[in-house]
Amino acid sequence: MQIKRTLQALGLSVILPVASGLASADSIVVQSTTSTKNSGLYDYILPKAEQSTGVTINVVAVGTGQAIKNAERCDGDVLLVHAKPSEEKFVAAGFGVERSDLMYNDFVIVGPSSDPAGVNGSSNVSEALSTIASASALFASRGDDSGTHKAELRLWQAAGTDPSEASGSWYRETGSGMGATLNAAVGMGAYAMTDRATWTKFGNKGDFEIHVEGDERLFNQYGVILVNAEKCPSVNSEAGQKFIDWLLSDEGQDTIASYRVQGNQLFFPNAN
Amino acid sequence: MLFDAFSQAVALIMSGDPELFEILWLSIQVSTSALAISVILALPIGTVLAISEFPGKRLCVTVLNSLMGLPPVVVGLLVYLMLSRSGPLGVLGLLYTPTAMVIAQVVLITPIIAALAYQVMDDLHREYRELFQSLGIDSIRAIPTYLWDARYSLVTSILAGFGRAISEVGAVIIVGGNIDHLTRVMTTAIALETSKGELAIALALGIILLMLALLVNAGVTTVRSIALKKAYV
Q: Cβ–Cβ of B179/A59 closer than 8 Å?
């Protein structure tokens, strides 16, 4: 602590009040997926959560893969992501205390209204992906190990297609977040898979529309995990647990359910 | 789109949106703090390198010049690994704070200012070394004269560093985390709006950032022209 004070005194005094704010007893860092932020959910629920719990909640929104890696490096108190197998692995390895289902929504496949592969109206995602592949229609993939990317790869596998062979031709891996990938897809007229929440709130849709939806395999489950203080002594377990308890409480779940964009509910709470 | 962005930028400024000014103010605080520290580090480095002779000097200059091209993302990653809770400086708890962003920008712009300062000082030293020697003044006592003579060029070097600091996004988004009301600055806000597909707002924020840069540079130019006038009256 002595070193910290010295460092902060060294010409950093301008920002000292802000800098020390993070380490205070009742503030936490949430390592999070991007969809919950880009869809505006946090802007809606966090003020209410902060008021109820008295905890200051700081969200770092990166892809699910990166969020898990950051939490494994102890750079967060709570993990809120959407890739159940990876989340269970995170808990099994001792990095997380316990995983709880929080809410769900679904993935959709969007594309240009001209629909070059002719998949519009399909509710069978495997068929739709096979059709896109055999038509060699452009498809923009996240390619960033995020929750959406992992789900997309599982669906390609289910469709019996390995798109990585076409990487660089019709299969374009952007290696970027959901928003950047959607911007790229709209820019080059490519199909893309996205969670419905991000898509609904997305402001640069161009002439794009939803082509494939309604397949139960497009289910998208979000989970929340407290980072384990035994692995990461810096974790603020008490405040982190307060936030998780609020999310899973009736009040938290009702708040999530009441978030609407253009009249549409984007997240469906399903905590046990 | 461009017109849309311009009118949004004007509307944002006119509305006095407190969130915009919070973000703008943090950008200025972080980058000026980084600039102050970098100048304190960089000017001595550039000066010493220019007036001293030692084996390996050319290598040092080459390395310094190359460091001007440090990719911000790499700087962000390195600073992240240092400040991460599981990194060597993790106990300080500085990750995801404005201080972390200052550190990243210092690493990024110190080489730029130092390398440019070296070039300026080296040119002067080559030109005046013999004159000073003939007057019996050694290099160290010549430093104040060099600094005064080079002040305008040095200010330009410092402005280059400031421009780099306030405009970069790759490093601060990794070590700051783009946390609302804590570490969100202009560039990370632009990145966020872009990822939401709100391109007009993103561009509007970009225009406001550019206006800030214009303001800073106009200020410096004015000070300089006043100083020049006084010098020749």
A: yes
- The chain A residue lying nearest B38, using CA atoms, is A11
- Among chain A residues, the shortest Cα distance to B34 is held by A12
Query: Which of B4, B103, B182, B192 best tests the A interface by mutation, with the highest count of A CBs <10 A?
Result: B182
Contact: B85, A19; criterion CB under 8 Å: no
Residues A133 and A188 in one domain: yes
Supply the mean pLDDT for chain B.
93
Other Cβ atoms less than 10 A from the Cβ of A97: the count is 19
Assess if residue B11 is contained within a domain.
no
Give the number of A-B residue pairs with CB atoms closer than 8 Å. 103
Residue B3 lies in a domain: no
CB contact under 8 A, A12 and B179: no
Domain span at residue A19 reads 2-104+221-269
Q: How far apart are CA B160 and CA B113, in angstroms?
A: 7
pLDDT per residue as tens digits for the range B98-118: 999 999 999 999 999 999 999
Residues of chain A whose beta carbon is less than 8 angstroms from a beta carbon of chain B are 3-4, 7-8, 11-12, 14-15, 18-19, 21-23, 29, 34, 37-38, 42-43, 58-61, 73-75, 177-180, 182-183, 201-205, 232, 234
pLDDT at B160 over 90: yes
Q: What is the pLDDT of residues A152-175, one digit of tens each?
A: 999 999 999 999 999 999 999 999
* ipTM for the assembly: 0.82
- Please count the other Cβ atoms lying within 10 Å of the Cβ belonging to residue B50: 23
Mean of pLDDT values over A28-52? 96
* CB contact set of A100 (below 8 Å; sequence gap of 6+): A223, A224, A225, A244, A248, A271, A272
B6 is a domain residue: no
Q: Residues B83, B100: contact at Cβ < 8 Å?
A: yes
